[in-house]
Amino acid sequence: MASIAWVASLAVAGVLMFSLNALGIIESPYVLTIALSTTALGTLIPILKENGMFGTRFGRFAFAAGAGGEMAPIVAMALFLRTVLVSTAFSVPSPQECC
């Protein structure tokens, strides 16, 4: 369930960011899509505790979903940056670029 919610969040963020990219408003839709798909677990936990819901079944589910929503963007960003850094590290500039 948590992964479905995160993928839905990723899809909505992707549509929005790639639309803004097509309009020329932003330049890196991949990074912003991943950044927008994260959850606010640091905000969610105090709200659950304040309302006495943290120990309930719903509170445990919300915490688990929030933890997944925090971890998935970290992994996605790491994979994205690895791909970008590896592809740029091994690129050879053309003679026109270097001189």
Strand and helix layout:
Blueprint: H1 2-22, H2 29-36, H3 41-50, H4 57-89, H5 95-98
Provide a brief overview of the structure.
The chain has 99 residues and is an all-alpha fold. It has helices at residues 2-22, 29-36, 41-50, 57-89, 95-98.
Q: How much strand content do the residues show?
A: under 5%
What is the makeup of the main sheet? none
Query: Which series of helices and strands comes N to C?
Result: HHHHH
Backbone structural class:
mainly alpha
Count every helix, treating DSSP H or I runs of 4 or more residues as helices. Answer: 5
Which geometry do the CA atoms define?
Answer: elongated
List the uncertain runs: none
Instruction: Give the strand tally.
Output: 0
Portion of residues in helices? over 70%
Q: What is the CA-atom radius of gyration, in angstroms?
A: 19 Å
Nearest-integer average pLDDT: 82
Distance between the termini: 54 Å
Explain what the structure shows.
This protein has 99 residues and is mainly α. Helices cover 77% and strands 0% of the residues. The protein has helices at 2-22, 29-36, 41-50, 57-89, 95-98.
List the main descriptive attributes of the protein structure presented here.
single chain; 5 helices; 99 residues; mainly alpha
